[in-house]
Design brief:
alpha/beta
Length: about 450
């Protein structure tokens, strides 16, 4: 019998073996690679820790626990009570007494946490190589990067170790690893999923995200995780909205005008656009990409320094060299520059709002290309910056997004697209994505 990989398959396996928590825990532990050759984990839960979570579920009514018996992984900048949070930096570690709100909701729905995953340190990077625990190995192409910063979470799902895994997404960290490992990566509307209990990167932009094998599984997790949290000062009461998913108006960027895209990915994207249903609408990419450039070429870099700068000043040796250089640069930006960038972003938002009056969904490449480990080592800053070309703008422009697999390019490398919609259209977007992939929409 094949190993379970989706939420439904893991739930069925749990129900079939429910009377024996110790045996169930042993199966989950045995499911892992003994030596973690992909460097997925920072901290795997011990057998007895997992048993405790399973025992709690034995008598729980499955109708009130939609995720009962489903194992999941947690990026190690998200708190799990009693387990150290490192954010990819051992010297930063602390042990929370309470789980992050989103983890509490998932556990209350019956999900079983099994470990904390490796990541680009302090969620600063899109490559998956900036970790003192080692670069996470791509599940499909070991000589290429796995994508970051939520690298371990993505690879854990692709290897079938868990049904889903939590990541975070400020600049694309929940979408780039999905593209490089042929997964679904869902980034909800900013403020809908609580970030209480999450180590901040850019607090005004941060989102918790999720990796799954299917769009339907992402939707299942979203139903549990998404809700207003009064304890989170950046939470928002999101009025969820809809559009006609069966006749969704889909926009696209001109494949032949996009910067940094290699020819293999360009051909894949052009083919994807050609296969879109209905009459796709060409959208000018300029305001989107200008907004994207503001994230790291502008004063939002100072927000990363605001989040972790005091620790950096006191413990500079604790940082990965690339991470230290990126965050330290945020201390040199002025308040005047910050306001000017906000003024420009407000103007760009108006242009993007006009674009979304013409379309319901915008489909674009998730990344311009995938890099080898050697390419990233030779140019750690340039390669990382280019990976954010089509992801950095999403939170700045207040969009929701889902990255989905879209085949392989001519060199056999994984290619993915991201579908985006305005804030609040999360379920409509997920349903539209499911239809594009041929999944049944419930």
């Amino acid at each position: 019998m094949t190993s379970p990989s989706t939420i439904a398959e893991f739930r069925a396996a749990f129900e079939a073996r429910r009377p024996d928590p110790a045996a169930l825990a042993a199966e989950l532990v045995d499911h892992w690679e003994p030596d973690d050759e992909h460097r997925v984990w920072i901290r795997r839960l011990e057998h007895q820790e997992i048993v405790a979570h399973i025992e709690r579920l034995i008598e729980v009514d499955k109708t009130s626990a939609p995720l009962r018996g489903v194992p999941f992984a947690i990026k190690d900048n998200i708190d799990l009570a009693g387990v150290p949070t490192t954010a990819g930096c051992p010297d930063y570690a602390y042990t929370p007494v309470r789980s992050a709100t989103v983890v509490e909701r998932l556990v209350a729905a019956g999900a079983i946490p099994v470990g904390k995953t490796n990541m680009d340190q302090f969620a600063t990077g899109l490559v998956g190589t900036r970790s003192p625990y080692g670069a996470v190995v791509n599940a499909l192409q070991p000589d290429h990067v796995s994508g970051g910063s939520s690298s371990g979470s993505a690879v854990a799902v692709k290897l079938g170790l868990v049904a889903f895994a939590l990541g975070t997404d400020t600049a694309g960290s929940g979408r780039v690893p999905a593209a490089f490992n042929e997964l679904v990566g869902f980034k909800p509307t900013r403020g809908w999923w609580s970030t209480r209990g999450v180590v901040p990167a850019c607090r005004t932009l941060d989102c918790v995200s999720v990796f799954t094998q299917t769009v339907g599984d992402a939707r299942t997790v979203a139903r549990v995780a998404g809700s207003f949290d009064e304890a989170d000062p950046y939470a928002r009461r999101i009025a969820l909205q809809d559009f006609d998913e069966e006749a969704a108006r889909i926009g696209f960027f001109d494949p032949y005008e996009l910067p940094h895209v290699d020819e293999g990915y360009r051909a894949c994207y052009a083919d994807f656009v050609d296969r879109l249903p209905g009459e796709p609408i060409r959208i000018d990419h300029a305001p989107f990409l200008e907004a994207a450039a503001l994230l790291y070429d502008g004063p939002w870099l100072a927000e990363r320094y605001a989040a972790i700068g005091c620790f950096l000043e006191q413990h500079p040796e604790a940082f990965h060299p690339v991470t230290r250089r990126v965050i330290a640069a945020g201390n040199n930006l002025s308040a005047v520059a910050c306001f000017r960038a906000q003024y420009r972003l407000a103007m760009l938002k108006r242009e993007v709002e006009r674009a979304f009056r013409r379309v319901d969904v915008l489909a674009l490449p998730t990344v311009p290309r995938i890099y080898t480990l050697g390419e990233v080592e030779a140019d750690p800053f340039g390669t990382n910056a280019r990976l954010g070309t089509f992801t950095n703008f999403v939170n700045l422009l207040d969009l929701c997004a889902v990255a989905v697999p879209a085949g392989r390019c001519s060199a056999g490398l994984p290619f993915g697209v991201t579908l985006t919609s305005p804030a609040g259209f999360d379920f409509a977007l997920l349903n539209a994505a499911a239809r594009l992939l041929g999944e049944v929409v419930d």
